[in-house]
């Protein structure tokens, strides 16, 4: 069936985590008959195990649906799934750039939350028509009127006609589709123009090479066309292309307004970047679509195979992972303690966790991860600047003029009764007070400038515990500021373990040093001999303890993750000795490398 461009609707669903985005997507797939009820697996769009387990959406996916509206006309809908977490902001933004509209799902019991706002801003940046939808009205605690008022007051969108739905039961979901058909504009491009297709995702297929997901903004792409990736200048011939509905369907061409996949025997993984523009050599475009940027990772850590012989496997796994995730970066690194591995850069902490877990699960690797670090700007006395993403590579103090660290602007949305504890927490993390915004009678938005390195430590967990999980947190990079920073080394049995070095604020160094030594003492199992643990600043020992007692329960306090992280830790712990690394004469378990994170300064 041929459907005219005026009857195409490209849209995303955006929401704060857990407000029901995936559930709504499932219902829409069912309603449009894309999947039969029997085929319906819960949360079909979230295809990765890991996502399902964690209940977060990481990968983008796009499906083509046909929908016959109440006006009797048939529309072609492209539903583009966006990842929901702040770490994936760039991918969200790119996937939104492929759309003309966004369905904004707001939980009728929770109301507007931090990421609701963040996503709305991204949608506005991309000039999208935003359609609010109130979900979970089946819940006894639902208060749709209050939420409608919030959407109008906080976001400034008219919401009195927003569909009131239950994605769970399917109630009124059809109204969402009617809303999309009526209010989302058709794609604007022209099929006779030079071709411009936006890459918003890619994945690696071992038979066909890299599969690229695109939205054709202008012109068309056909099987056999020579295509060019405008940022990387690479040229390939299209072997196959098509759409997903959600099964893969092959087609002869993708025309303006369509969203689909392209296979072109792409073997070089470096050629494909999310956000880049594809054009054809027969109808070449002069300019790229706007918005492409290289991503700067915010958090780095070292990843090492437990078994050194698997270094090559780790490299291959990272290369493959990079295909579906252009924001991952890595380069070889060696550590005296851990051998050969990679320094990897991530967009944020969740991103790091997810990549690590996928590497272990999908590639059957056992990894040791070092504590995450941010990127410091180290200004030397000769006037030059070094970017330091690994504490071990910080030069000696006599060469350093000053060091700058990244600060983020943190917005914490919270019930008003937790404002006090949150301010105390932020203050203890070297935060600088900016503002408290009044949202409504019950809620406030607390804004602080905080060093990213403090968030990399145990900020999330602390925040959760001091607000009983009621606060939601969002951060964005602000700028670099000068701080009194220094490297703290940890010595085991007299040897510096490079993978345990951290960069710390001088005022906190003594306390942290002491706690880390204590913590390592708990975690590192008893050896055949007594092992001194020391913390040192520039060669000067500031804390010391000895390992000799029986091993204690590692879970008690180490690496204060949330429940799932603790479980992960427990599992790793069960595997026991396997995950040990012999460092000099001392066996160190994985937890030790993370323990330096969960340091209580109080
Ligand atoms: N009672 C009720 N529960 C719902 C409704 N819609 C979704 N849920 C539940 O809310 C939880 C979160 O729903 P998801 O669809 O996974 O939320 P999401 O926004 O996709 O979450 P992320 O993928 O983490 O961003 C699940 O347990 C759903 O079963 C609804 O209409 N009513």
UniProtKB/TrEMBL annotation:
Q: Which UniProt keywords apply?
A: Cell membrane, GTP-binding, Hydrolase, Membrane, Nucleotide-binding, Protein biosynthesis
What InterPro entries does this protein's entry cite? EF-4, EFG_III/V, EFG_V-like, EFTu-like_2, G_TR_CS, LepA_C_sf, LepA_CTD, LepA_IV
Membrane topology field: Peripheral membrane protein
Where found?
A: Cell membrane
What SMART domains does the entry give?
EFG_C
What GO biological process terms does the UniProt entry carry, in alphabetical order?
positive regulation of translation
> Where's the Tr-type G domain?
6-188
Catalyses: GTP + H2O = GDP + phosphate + H(+)
Protein name, please? Elongation factor 4
Q: Which organism does this sequence originate in?
A: Coprobacillus cateniformis
Q: What broad taxonomic lineage does this protein's source fall under?
A: Bacteria, Bacillati, Bacillota, Erysipelotrichia, Erysipelotrichales
């Amino acid at each position: 069936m041929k459907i005219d461009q005026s009857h195409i609707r490209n849209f995303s669903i955006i929401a704060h985590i857990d407000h029901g985005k995936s559930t709504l997507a499932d219902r829409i797939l069912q309603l449009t008959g894309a999947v039969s009820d029997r085929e319906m697996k819960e949360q079909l769009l979230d295809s990765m195990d890991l996502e399902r387990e964690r209940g977060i959406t990481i990968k983008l996916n796009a499906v083509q649906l046909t929908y016959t509206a109440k006006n009797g006309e048939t529309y072609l809908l492209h539903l583009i799934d966006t990842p929901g977490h702040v770490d994936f902001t760039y991918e969200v933004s790119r996937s939104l750039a492929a759309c003309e509209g966004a369905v904004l799902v707001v939980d009728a019991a929770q109301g507007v939350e931090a990421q609701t706002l963040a996503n709305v801003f991204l949608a506005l940046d991309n000039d999208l028509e935003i359609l609010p939808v109130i979900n979970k009205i089946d819940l006894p605690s639902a208060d749709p009127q209050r939420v409608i008022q919030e959407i109008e007051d906080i976001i400034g969108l008219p919401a009195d006609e927003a569909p009131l739905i239950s994605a769970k039961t399917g109630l009124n979901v059809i109204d969402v589709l009617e809303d999309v058909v009526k209010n989302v504009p058709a794609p604007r491009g022209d099929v006779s123009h030079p071709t411009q297709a936006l890459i918003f995702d890619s994945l690696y297929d071992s038979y066909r090479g890299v599969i690229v997901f695109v939205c054709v903004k202008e012109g068309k792409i056909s099987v056999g066309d020579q295509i060019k990736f405008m940022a990387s200048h690479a040229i390939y011939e299209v072997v196959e292309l098509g759409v997903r509905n959600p099964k893969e369907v092959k087609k002869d061409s993708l025309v303006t307004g369509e969203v689909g996949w392209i296979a072109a025997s792409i073997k070089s993984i470096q050629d494909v970047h999310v956000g880049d523009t594809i054009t054809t050599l027969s109808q070449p475009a002069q300019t790229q679509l706007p918005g492409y940027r290289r991503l700067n990772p915010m958090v780095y850590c070292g990843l090492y195979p437990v078994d050194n012989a698997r270094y090559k496997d780790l490299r291959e796994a990272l290369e493959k992972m990079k295909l579906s995730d252009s924001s991952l970066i890595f380069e070889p690194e060696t550590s005296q303690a851990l051998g050969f591995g990679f320094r990897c850069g991530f967009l944020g902490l969740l991103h790091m966790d997810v990549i690590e877990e996928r590497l272990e699960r999908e590639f059957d690797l056992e990894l040791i991860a070092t504590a995450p670090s941010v990127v410091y700007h180290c200004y030397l006395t000769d006037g030059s600047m070094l970017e330091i993403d690994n504490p071990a590579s910080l030069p000696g103090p006599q060469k350093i003029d000053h060091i700058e660290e990244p600060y983020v602007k943190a917005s914490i949305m919270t019930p008003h009764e937790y404002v006090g504890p949150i301010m105390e927490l932020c203050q203890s993390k070297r935060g600088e007070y900016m503002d408290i915004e009044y949202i409504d009678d019950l809620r406030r938005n607390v804004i602080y400038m905080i060093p990213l390195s403090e968030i990399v430590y145990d900020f999330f967990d602390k925040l959760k515990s001091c607000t009983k999980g009621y606060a939601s947190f969002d951060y964005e990079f602000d700028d670099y500021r000068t701080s009194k920073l220094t490297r703290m080394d940890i010595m085991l049995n007299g040897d510096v373990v490079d993978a345990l070095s951290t960069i710390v604020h001088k005022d906190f160094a003594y306390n942290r040093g002491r706690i880390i030594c204590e913590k390592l003492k708990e975690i590192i199992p008893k050896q055949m001999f007594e092992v001194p643990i020391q913390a040192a600043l520039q060669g000067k020992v500031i804390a010391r303890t000895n390992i000799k007692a029986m091993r204690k329960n590692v879970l008690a306090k180490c690496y204060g993750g949330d429940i799932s992280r603790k479980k992960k830790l427990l599992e790793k712990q069960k595997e026991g000795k396997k995950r040990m690394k012999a460092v000099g004469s001392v066996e160190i378990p994985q937890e030790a490398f993370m323990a330096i994170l969960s340091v209580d300064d109080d």
